[in-house]
Amino acid sequence: MQDVETLKLAAKVAVPLFGVLALLFAALKASLVLKADAGTDRMKQISGFIHQGAMAFLGREYRAISLFAAVVALVLLYLGYTQKTPWVFACFLYGAFSSGLSGFFGMKAATRSNVRAANAARTSLNAALGVAFSGGSVMGMCVVGLGVVGLGVLYIIFGAIPEPMTTISGFGLGASSIALFARVGGGIYTKAADVGADLVGKIEAGIPEDDPRNPAVIADLVGDNVGDVAGMGADLFESFVGSIIAAMVIGVAMTDHSVRGIMYPLALACVGIVASILGTFIVRTAEGSNPQKALNNGTFLAGFLMIVGSYFLTVKMLPASFTFGGGAAYTATGAFLATVAGLVAGILIGLLTEYYTAEGKPPSVGIAKASETGPATTIIAGLSVGMRSTAFPVIVLAAGVVAAYLLAGLYGIALAGLGMLSTTGIVLAVDAYGPIADNSGGIAEMSELPPEVRRRTDKLDAVGNTTAAIGKGFAIGSAALTALALFSAFTQKAGLMKIDIMNPYVVAGLLIGAMMPFLFCSMAIGAVGSAAFDMIGEVRRQFREIPGLMEGKATADYARCVDISTRAAIRRMIVPGVLAVAVPIVAGWLDKEFLGGLLAGVTASGVMLAIFQANAGGSWDNAKKYIEAGNLGGKGSPAHKAAVVGDTVGDPFKDTSGPSLNILIKLMSIVSLVFAPLLF
Amino acid sequence: MQDVETLKLAAKVAVPLFGVLALLFAALKASLVLKADAGTDRMKQISGFIHQGAMAFLGREYRAISLFAAVVALVLLYLGYTQKTPWVFACFLYGAFSSGLSGFFGMKAATRSNVRAANAARTSLNAALGVAFSGGSVMGMCVVGLGVVGLGVLYIIFGAIPEPMTTISGFGLGASSIALFARVGGGIYTKAADVGADLVGKIEAGIPEDDPRNPAVIADLVGDNVGDVAGMGADLFESFVGSIIAAMVIGVAMTDHSVRGIMYPLALACVGIVASILGTFIVRTAEGSNPQKALNNGTFLAGFLMIVGSYFLTVKMLPASFTFGGGAAYTATGAFLATVAGLVAGILIGLLTEYYTAEGKPPSVGIAKASETGPATTIIAGLSVGMRSTAFPVIVLAAGVVAAYLLAGLYGIALAGLGMLSTTGIVLAVDAYGPIADNSGGIAEMSELPPEVRRRTDKLDAVGNTTAAIGKGFAIGSAALTALALFSAFTQKAGLMKIDIMNPYVVAGLLIGAMMPFLFCSMAIGAVGSAAFDMIGEVRRQFREIPGLMEGKATADYARCVDISTRAAIRRMIVPGVLAVAVPIVAGWLDKEFLGGLLAGVTASGVMLAIFQANAGGSWDNAKKYIEAGNLGGKGSPAHKAAVVGDTVGDPFKDTSGPSLNILIKLMSIVSLVFAPLLF
Question: Which residues, other chains included, contact B634 with Cβ-Cβ below 8 Å and sequence gap of 6+?
């Protein structure tokens, strides 16, 4: 027996070591990036602006969040004390800190690698890809590393207390809270700057994208980092951690094998780390070929290694047959297949997203054609595409849920979520690569580097748009599965035997829950609208009042624009954030089944709105690019003007309100999970 | 005992007589309209075009629906035969026929009263209001009359067989099927014409609204009738009938008093008819005052009479205390209050809708201001308003559902729906008045009547826009309650003891259900987009190819435009219609709980999308009107151009895809209700 105990301890200690491995790999990648040359003085100056703006925003954002976190921590401290689980608040703070830390590292890496990627593009495409992808890898590996270290360490500390998961779940709540503010705040920031820069700079003044004369250009480049790097990172950190926690909570009930039930999800995450690291090694491209292929190869290799690795892990680790509290019996093979089902569903949703958004595919070409009759038909066509695009991903998701349940019960649903997220390390690296490539193009433009450099960065950037769309689909799919898994975990913790739709409280919850994402989106979109309005006013003012600006003889006041975005983002993220945390607590305090209905409603309508907005936005974007490539009259034609309107409407859809919903549905579930044993 | 039986028979016979009363009142109103003078030859000619176009469309639409109805009837005949309820198919056909008939009468009255209202406007505002409102009353009274006659007669015929409601529910299915095609087809028709007429006529050619030189102008005027009169009528016919049926189905189970449980909803509807008729008598206005007040007075009087009447009815008719199959005991007062709760919720939702859409209120003024920075910010602001506007109506709805349930169980939810719909007679009269007033303005413009006439019709039309918005809110609220009531009725008929959200099939159903409204809207919006594209091409062609058209020397080929709208509407209504009927059947055949989740998902996301689209559309419309009234630069300013884009996007939202969802959620529930005892 002592051997078994030693083995268990070794396994427990091994988990955080895999997390440390990911962090070491991130450090290695970061040092590789920093070793690269940052180019000319002008390049260094511009990237300095971006770096300062991004870090200043992060600082102010984290200060604002700290206040919020302190309040929640106090509430948790009090409730935890009364319920004899005194350490929930500490786990919460640790989760919040880890999420913040990964955002900090990721963004630092991104704002260092953008300029170096631009400089590398002066030599070769592969060199530039290498730098940009290395920068993205820092974010990816930090997220999975800090997640696994966090949960692994907490399990070592609290694994022996009764009901350890009640305490450890606090880690997920911390991660989620930060994620909400990072996504909403980052989303408002980036789009206020983007819309403002485009509407006045490109449309009114007629100067190109990323032109240094545009006062909002730095804010726009900063926005790519705070929205697409830090926001996406916090989103996936939350999904990753949340899906592991959900599986651990359900795994506790595994009859005769509760430790295995809890450890297995952690071990799966470790396999994912190794698979992701190995996947990064084959990401390289030749001068003439498409960098997309290189990135895909890495992702697919990681997915393949994950499947192989998890098969051996499952056979070794899980008992051949197991039950949860005497219910139906499941097999180790079933658990393995549920993991694979999630992974496959994630890939399918990504591919479907690509179809609905990619340049040259029928949906975006249709929107481009509708642009010939003006902006109204552009918008109508895009809304139609976005709505239609919900159909197949949702069917895939529903099929995945049913399959996973049949294979391994509620545990299977959580494993499917984890399966989808197991290769987060490389998926996020690919995703964070996008804004880095985008930034490197902007720096090349502003530093007036030769056209072949810009051509190379454009090539990297175009790939980035596709990876961003796929990444968004993936983020939504994984958020939905994670939310469902957390929801299942919540029902177990809350001791709910059923949530019956025939109960009018559940119906009321369902309706109010389905309304929440609409309200939430309205706030996010409204924030972008009003911040963009301010930004437009400021850019117009600078063009008018700064003499010589348009002639390139004077410098724009970039800081003012950065400040407008920053203030709007911080101010406008508060209400939605507080709402998302408070509503489930109040609802659960009123009636647990009402809360159950509410969570189901939030998830159902949230997933639809998220897919709708992400794909409508992506499709408008690429319809514009299709016209800019010379079709239907090309740049400057009436069709192009209409397409720009579509793209501008799509911006807050795909980068602010849409992605915030991923967080909303997970956050409301994890709030319920954490507070259920404390309060309801 | 014989006395009781005689009394019961008398009550049964009295119900259809109240329906006949409504029909007689409709006939009286119709004869009043026809007696009025139709004005000049030019006016007669134009109204003749509209009448022909509308009737031709209705004829083709009904032919297409007949085919569909025949197939469904055959299926019902077969299934009914095997399940020993052989007459379901006949009830289905009767319901379909009644819905079609009320659409036919209503539209005939509308296309006769538009020109007479225009002519009456040459004398006084009150005379014009009188004609337009009388025309609307025909529709309103036909709907409630045919509904009550239908259900009353069917109950006399089938009341004595075992499980009568299994057969009688077929009537509701018939009404719903027609409603779907009428709403979707009418919605596509009207908006394809409207968008086409506006984009080329108003924006490109710069000619005023309703200008006879615009080839799409007749199609546009026809569209008001087929979309807003016939479509809305079929929608409310379905809600009215559906809510009565749902209450009857649940009422069957009233312990010891099943006949009272079944008859009470019918009797409530009869009280509503009397209240509505009395309400119409006080709708009159003076030359200087606002016609809105007159319409409101009528509606509020009817509501007040309904509350008083239903109190006495309830006390007389329902036992002081009753149960359903031995569950919780409810009181007659509770049933009365549940009815009132529905009525109050309906009024609140209407008022909220008015706030979010009315000209001069903060939401639409905010959109107007956003138009100053171009069409993109107009669209963003409108989407944000629409999304935000879901919050309060949904909270009202949820509170209504819970209150009604606490007062009288599932029966209470059905009664709340019925309470909201009890005054449909006058509500629909007010609603149908809108497009008649709109048409009369168009006829006045095309016939070149003096400006004071156009001023009077404009005044009537402006009121019509507000009544239309309130009517839409009302239609959505009642559809939601009806769908929930039908859903409850379905669960009873299907013998479902629970629909547990923790069951993965229910989760899958919920997700797929929540997706359906998005898919459905996409089809409807896509149909408008592509039909408008064809219309734009045709109008441009006529301007180009018909010599002297722009100078007013040649006549446009109106028939071609009418034909484009007609064909697009008929062709594009098929797939969504078949989908809405087939999906619940397939789902229920797979698994009843899966279907339960699906219906809940459809209702939850359908209600949100319906409110969102109706209010976004209404608000864009009135933002444009606010600018046209001389604000923010007035007509022709850049802000106005941007606002026109918003209005054009809002058109299919508020008149095609949004309203179709009302039908979708009811239809899918009633399909489930009718097919459950036959198939699942």
Answer: B627, B628, B640
Phi and psi for A323 in degrees, rounded to 5? -135, 170
Distance CA B4, CA B8 (A): 6
The number of C-beta contacts closer than 8 angstroms across A and B is 237
State pLDDT tens for residues B228-265: 899 889 999 999 999 999 999 999 988 888 889 999 99
CA distance B142 to B240: 12
User: CA B146 → CA B178, B240, B241, B274, distances in Å?
Assistant: 14, 11, 10, 15
For residue A329, list its beta bridge partners. Answer: A323
Q: How far apart are CA B251 and CA B263, in angstroms?
A: 8
How many CB atoms within 10 Å of residue A315?
12
Torsion of CA A134, A139, A144, A145, to 10 degrees: 80
Cβ distance A140 to A427 under 8 Å? Answer: yes
- The better pLDDT of the pair B539, A552 is held by B539
pLDDT tens-digit map of A231-284: 989 999 999 999 999 999 999 988 888 889 999 999 999 999 999 999 999 998
Helix (H), strand (E) at residue B304: helix B291-317
Name which of B587, B581, B595, B657 is nearest B92 in CA terms: B581
Contacts of B172 by beta carbon, 8 Å cutoff, 6+ apart: B95, B238, B241, B242, B245, B486, B670, B673, B674
- Contact across the interface for A645 and B379, Cβ inside 8 Å: yes
Nearest-angstrom CA–CA distance, B558 and A655: 45
Q: How far apart, in whole angstroms, are the C-alpha atoms of residue B547 and residue B562?
A: 21
Contact criterion met (CB below 8 Å) for B612 and B387: yes
Q: What is the pLDDT of residues B181-205, one digit of tens each?
A: 899 999 999 999 998 888 888 778 8
Enumerate helices (H) and strands (E) in chain A, giving the number of each: 21, 2
- Min CA distance, B57 vs chain A (Å)? 25
Q: What part of B 371-410 touches A (C-beta under 8 Å)?
A: 373-377, 379-381, 383-388, 390-391, 394-395, 397-399, 401-402, 404-406
Cα(B417)–Cα(B432) distance, integer angstroms: 21
Q: In angstroms, rounded to a whole number, what is the distance separating the alpha carbons of residues A654 and A365?
A: 18
Report the SS3 class of residue A498.
Answer: coil
SS3 content of chain A, % helix, strand, coil (to 5): 85, 0, 15
B chain contacts of residue A512, beta-carbon cutoff 8 Å = 394-395, 398
How near does any CA of chain B get to the CA of A158, in Å? 29
Residues of A in contact with B413 (CB under 8 A): 504
The burial of A559, by beta-carbon neighbours within 10 Å (0-12 exposed, 13-18 middle, 19 or more buried), is given as middle
CA distance B496 to B676: 10
| Exposure string over A492-502, b if 16+ CB within 10 A, otherwise e | bbbebebbbbb
With contact defined as beta carbons under 8 Å apart, do B525 and A384 qualify? Answer: yes
> Which residues touch B361 (CB under 8 Å, ≥6 apart)?
B354, B355, B622
Tokens of A404: 């996973």
Burial of A586 (0-12, 13-18, 19+ CB in 10 A): exposed
| pTM beyond 0.90 | yes
Sequence-distant (6+) residues with CB within 8 A of B592 are: B494, B496, B676, B680
A533 in Cβ contact with B370 (< 8 Å):
yes
Report d(CA B358, CA B353) in Å as an integer: 8
> pLDDT digit string (tens) for A468-519?
777 888 889 989 999 999 999 999 889 898 999 999 999 999 999 999 999 9
Rounded-to-integer distance, Cα A669 and Cα A487, Å: 6
